[in-house]
């Protein structure tokens, strides 16, 4: 019961395996709009799909915080990237968005 991949060429490659940067970026940006980032897994799954489609693994240097780590950092009054968001899901969305920007920089 897996899902069947759409055969329209949406995997970011041509028949010869060349990567289309713009179409992959459009896909990624579209996914960012459509995913409700509620958990760490939502971000890691999204980034894994991006890796799959891109065929290379470019990771942000900043580790992705779990919900507990984020709450702890927020509570301790740390003033950093992770804690500037009012909710964990906002942080996750920002992290995923920054990862996409980093991919295509």
State the secondary-structure class: mainly alpha
First-residue to last-residue Cα separation: 37 Å
The count of β-strands is: 0
Order of helices and strands: HHHH
Low-confidence stretches: 1-9, 13-19
State the helix count: 4
Largest sheet: none
**Principal-axis shape:** elongated
Beta-strand residue fraction: under 5%
Radius of gyration, in angstroms, nearest whole number: 16 Å
> Overall mean pLDDT score?
80
Helical percentage? 40-55%
Question: What tags apply to this protein structure?
Answer:
105 residues; mainly alpha; disordered N terminus
Polypeptide structure, described:
Helix 1 runs antiparallel to helix 4. The protein has four helices and no strands. It is elongated and about 40 Å long. By secondary structure, the protein is mainly alpha-helical. The protein is 51% helix and 0% strand. The N terminus is likely disordered.
Q: Outline of this structure?
A:
The protein is an all-alpha fold and 105 residues long.
Ordered list of secondary-structure elements with their pairings:
Blueprint: H1 21-34, H2 40-54, H3 67-75, H4 88-103
Helix pairs in contact: 1-4, 2-4
């Amino acid at each position: 019961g897996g899902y069947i991949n759409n055969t329209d060429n949406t995997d970011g490659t041509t028949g010869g395996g060349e990567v289309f940067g713009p179409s992959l970026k459009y896909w990624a940006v579209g996914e960012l709009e459509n995913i409700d980032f509620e958990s760490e897994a939502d971000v890691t799954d999204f980034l894994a799909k991006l890796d799959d489609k891109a065929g290379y693994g470019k990771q942000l240097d900043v580790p992705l915080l779990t919900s507990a780590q984020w709450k702890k950092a927020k509570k301790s009054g740390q003033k950093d990237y992770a804690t500037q968001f009012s909710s964990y899901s906002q942080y996750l969305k920002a992290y995923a968005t920054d990862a996409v920007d980093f991919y295509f920089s």
